[in-house]
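Cont'd.
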Amino acid sequence: MTFQEIKLYQTGTFVVGNRLLDPQQRSVQARTGRSNSLTSGHRACQGCGEALGARYVLDAAMRATDGRLVAVNSTGCLEVFSTPYPESSWQLPWLHSLFGNGPAVASGVAAALRASGRDDIRVIGQAGDGGTVDIGFGTLSGMFERNDDVLFVCYDNEGYMNTGVQRSGATPPGAATNTTKVLGHHPGNAFGQGKSVPLIAMAHEIPYVATATVAELRDLEHKVEKAMTFRGARYLHVFVPCPLGWGAASADTIKLARLAKETGIFPVFEAEGGQVTEVSRIRRQVPVEDYLRPQRRYAHLFGDNPRPDVVARIQAGADRNIARFGLLPEGDA
Amino acid sequence: MRSQVEGSQAVARAVTLCRPQVVAAYPISPQTHIVESLSDRVRTGELADCEYLLVESEFGAMSACIGASAAGVRSYTATSSQGLLFMAEALFNASGLGLPVVMTVANRAIGAPINIWNDHSDTMAMRDCGWVQLFAESNQRAVDLHLQAFRLAESLSVPVMVCMDGFVLTHAVEEVDLPTQDEVDAFLPRFLPQQQLDPEEPVTIGAMVGPEAFTEVKYLMHAKQLAALDEIPVIAAEFRSRFGRDSGGLVRPYRLEDAETVVVALGSVLGTIEDVVDEMRELGVAIGALGITCFRPWPAAEVRDALHRAARVVVVERAFAVGAGGIVGQNVRDATRGLPLVVHDVVAGLGGRAVTRASLHRLLEDVVADRLDPARLHFLDLDIALVERELTRARGGRRPGPHAESMLREIGTVASGAYD
């Protein structure tokens, strides 16, 4: 008699398969009652990190609010791929106004709900990094400082991907985009530029700020549910790889998101009232080169004319994050 | 109730009586007294069940109104000048989405050079943004137009701006008859949104539309504006029957019965124009005036009907299309196409320059005597000598520097009104 060995769960990871969990502990996505807020049939690219992140964020928020949720969306990939007329992938009330005003529109919705005694209905705003850190930044800061009852979610794919991959204020140093090409002496995007909106959000001392990646979807769901326990302005910054813009394989979206965290390039943490309360530590630190190599936007650092100096500067940036947030595993710090 | 009240206070009271539930505003002169007063009224509870958002910009103000309106509540803001232009993208969005936001514009010039005083450059720049534009010629009409604006906006689901001259009206104290809450409640029913963000019935608002239907969606916006041309007189008639005075409507003829010469204008300058018409009538001149209350949508048929017996039309406008000519004049010319009349475009009262009776008399005497060239854009009270001196100076050097500074140095003052 022949028999086949069956793997019930992955080994060598910290991930526990849903089937081993009590139903109450299963992820929102694993439940039969998930709301499918962003339903199938939309036109995102294969392997889109933003579509994955948005689905988890919205379904978790729908569960946390018992379906009493309104979404406001800034212009960008998420808006475009979800609503090509006359189709819509949204199964919750959803409003798109402009590129730069998502936070202010969300504030207006929240104010209207409060004025009409319906503040049991919660408001979520969402945008890409362009709509959040650049063109929407003024309205975002206004929403923060007024402490309006909005959870604003930035799906950060580190550039203007919808318009054809240009640099944003969230594009990392060294990355090639169509406005930071590897031409002349320029090795991609400049060092010493860009901004961390999670840290800026903390400076507003809003109730809750968190970062997350699409590699740890249970963590993402948890942070959304936690955000919904607060009233006032909350900010969630989700790292979402973009196969198109990064020149990465569609199958590598989760892997790249995990490597961004495990290298220290993208610190995953939570903050309340301006103070860091939790950091998600690195399990096994890896050099940034492991993260950079699979991406064509960094190919110029490893080709015929390699730039180990640039890689070293990127590594130094990751090391600064590790030191700043205390990201090394317990005992290694 | 009649009382002596500042225009801004009267408007703030009128808006309060309309019971908006979200007010989002950013301060800009000369709109400030309106939004300050509304803040007081929300804080004291006179304006109840209203959220007042102190936003970070006019762009944020209009955006918050868009969100609030889509969430199903009556929404209001006020702005001026640069603030209106800073909203530009959101103005088109509100009208494109068909959201019945009401806004007061305290009309003010657009820089550069920066200038806080009154003209119509701001709302004229936004004339094609898809909003209804109603112009008030007095504070009483400003109050009345706000009541009608909410009614119109909500009946057609279009945004409406009420334009009132900055400082000239906003800061002028005059007698205004303010209605009671009961009267306003009877005139302005509760807001029933035509579209609403509601978890019970989820809808997608603001979806992307490509070439397959974009024209049709835009056509519907146009059709709605044309429907407003029918609705505005109906609302004005009901207003008259309830409040006992003529206010609103599309156009307002003044002594047009046998007028060979007609002055067309918008806003507070109509008061001065009507005085001048009276004075010239005393002298036997067959002259009248046509006030444009509703500039967008453009009431072409009413304008044509009002002007069809005239020989000369003088459009006095407080803005112009740089490099092209008059703005209202173009619309008047379009409305009167084929009629045997001459249309003069006269730019007057820019950046707060007073439009005086004396200047209007000189202008209209020239018009009546056919001394004004209708092919040229005419600037009332233009100091042509100052312009010539500056042009001569600028021709003299390779880098002559900024015009504004040297022209102010020429006339030796920075105050307005030193031209006469």
